[in-house]
Every structure is written in C-alpha cells, then in structure tokens.
Amino acid sequence: MHADFRLNGVSYDRDNLLSYAHELSSAKPEYLNELGRFVLDWFSDSPHLELQTSGSTGKPTQIVAPKAMLSASAMTTVKALVLQPTQQALLCLPLRHIAGKMMLIRALLAGLWIDVIKPTASPMVSKTYDFTAMTPLQLKSSLNHLDQFKLIIVGGAPVEDFLRAEVKNHTSRIFSTYGMTETYSHVALQNLSAGETHYTAVDHVRFSTQGDSLVVHAPHIGIENLITTDCVDLISPTQFLWKGRNDLVINSGGIKLHPEQIEKALSAIISVPFFVFGKPDKRLGQSLSIVFEGHIPNEIETMVLNLDTLSKYEKPKDYFVLSQFVRTNGKILRNQTIQTIDFL
To answer: Taking a C-beta distance cutoff of 8 angstroms, is the pair 152, 132 a contact?
Structure first.
C-alpha cells in the first residue's frame, strides 16, 4: 500500500483502512459494502482473489487470480498511462467486476487519491479528475462534461463509431482497452482521442494468432498462449485490428458473418439499442436476424435494404423487438436476451 494513497479524501494507514473496511462490509448502500469487502479480501492472508467473469457470452465463471499477478497488471497500467502519486482518480464502476477491482488496486499501489461513487449509467461529478475508467455507456452520458476527466480508459463493450467520432481530437486522453477477466484487466490500448483504429500491447505483452483468433502472451502476469475468442488482423507482435468475436460468428448457408462488423454499419442508421444474431433456420442453418429494444424504427427495413455498406448477405432477414434487453453492468447479454425472443 502506497503511503500517498487516499480514499474519498481521507489518508489511511493499513490498520485504519482495514478498520474502515470492516465498518463498510456490513453497510448499505451496496457499493460501499462491496468496497469494504474488497479491501478486506485484498489485505487478507490469502495470496489469491476470486474473480467472476461478466457472463456476457455465456455463464459467469469463477477465476482464482494471484494477487501478485493483479499487482503486476495494475503497475503495468500505471506505467503505460504515466500515472503519478496524489493524482485524483474516480471509481464509478462496480467493484464486483475486474475493471472496478483494478481501479482500486492501481490506486492502492500507485498512491492515487481515489473517490468511490455509486456506479450509474451517468456518473455525475463536481470536480476534475486525472483518471477514471468507464463503460461506453458511461462515456456517452458524460460527453457534455468530458473536460472533468483528463484521462479515461473505456472497456466492457465495443465503442460505437458515433462515440469514436465524438471523442476524436478531444483534449482529454481517452483510450479503449482490450482485455478480459482472464488477463486481469487490459493488455492493450487504443487511443480514441488520437483516432487510432488498432490496439497496441502494454509492456511485456505480445500477440500471435491461431487461425484468425488472437493469442495473448503476457508472462509478467503468468499468461502464456491464451487463445481468445476474438477474431483479429495481426499487424505485428504488438498490434492488431479487432474484427469481432469468433463465438458470435453466424454461419448462414456456409457464409460466415461477423455480427460486430454488421452492427457497426447498421449503427449509422439506427439510434435505438439493437444487435444481430443467427436465428435457427432449417435450410441455412442460421438466418441473419436483428432485435431492437423498445421499438422497431420507422422505415428501417427499407433503410437497411438501401444501405450500401453491407452486402446482401449482411442484411437481416427477420426483425424482432423486445421491451428490454438482459444486461449486466450495462453490457447486453446476447444469449440470455435471445432466449426471451418469441420466434413464432
């Protein structure tokens, strides 16, 4: 624990912080309870922490992570982003997931002055921060006051094109992150404010591919040859272009369709939440379909047919609507949402 560390404006030594954490661990609201329980877990005698994957592509699973590896990951980020002791940081993410945990670990190890607030889709602050982490949804809701954040890392879901355009050339430093619970937060960064479209590895990380799947090599955090479900174009051992997830690929009559690339094109004409998926089809195996949240936009079928950025195979054949998508931490759970669709 760094001597300069502060939590919500208060300086603590280890004993006082643990005492405060004990109080919070039985407190309400829930985000303070999570804060207390995490601090107690971090300073416990166990050399590990239990992490839970987000469940965005399947059932959430438990991962046992060595604290030494979490510390190494945290300090790699501190170095990559040139974070300094006493800089003001904001935690506006849930501590139950890896992104929130890593923000607090970075603060503890680097001596950041971190404020912890209730996680919401629209984090509101009354002062300027040097560093924070957000989801794309939070970034979108913060566009009118981005000047209050000098440095933002964004993760948890792909950043839509319109949002990229909004933050390009912004005076704040804004990075999209690539990583997962299994890599203890991110292993690569993409500078959105500089308009980058590729990801670059942080220190000690290298990439390769198996087929078109990205393979991560990060020995400083105990990871060798981690085969991901991400489809990429490898530029070099330290850079790649992300294309989508292989486990979401739709095989329609032998033609492989990448939902993320199709959604990127469709986002130019659709403003409501949506995603595309493969509906079971006796003839094709899977038929490209689209589901909207709330309502189906007017004239959308005609607009899609006239969209010249998609081939005829990439244009949805069936349209569905749900009143609400299933989400966790603001991230759409595709599989669980699809299960709620009435295909009759």
So the answer is: yes
Burial class (CB in 10 A: 0-12, 13-18, 19+), 43: middle
Query: CB of 71 within 8 A of CB of 65?
Result: no
Residue 129 DSSP symbol: B
Closest alpha carbon to 195 in 176, 215, 221? 176
**Domains recognised in the chain with CATH numbers:** 6-245 (3.40.50.12780), 249-338 (3.30.300.30)
Coil, strand, or helix at residue 338? helix
pLDDT tens, 298-335?
Answer: 999 999 999 999 999 999 999 999 999 998 877 889 99
Taking the alpha carbons of 148, 154, 156, 159 in that order, is the dihedral positive or negative?
Answer: positive
* Token representation of residue 15: 């004993």
Angstrom distance (rounded) from CA 224 to CA 230: 16
Query: Rounded to whole angstroms, how far apart are CA atoms 38 and 264?
Result: 37
Q: Which two tokens stand for residue 203?
A: 């220190």
Q: Note the pLDDT tens digit of each residue in 48-72.
A: 999 987 655 556 678 899 999 999 9
Neighbours of 241 (CB within 10 A): 13
9 touches 113 (CB < 8 A): yes
pLDDT in tens, 132-163: 999 988 999 999 999 999 999 999 888 888 89
Residue 110: pLDDT over 90: yes
Cα 217 from chain centroid (whole Å): 20
Q: pTM of the entire structure?
A: 0.82
DSSP, collapsed to helix, strand or coil, labels residue 182 as: helix
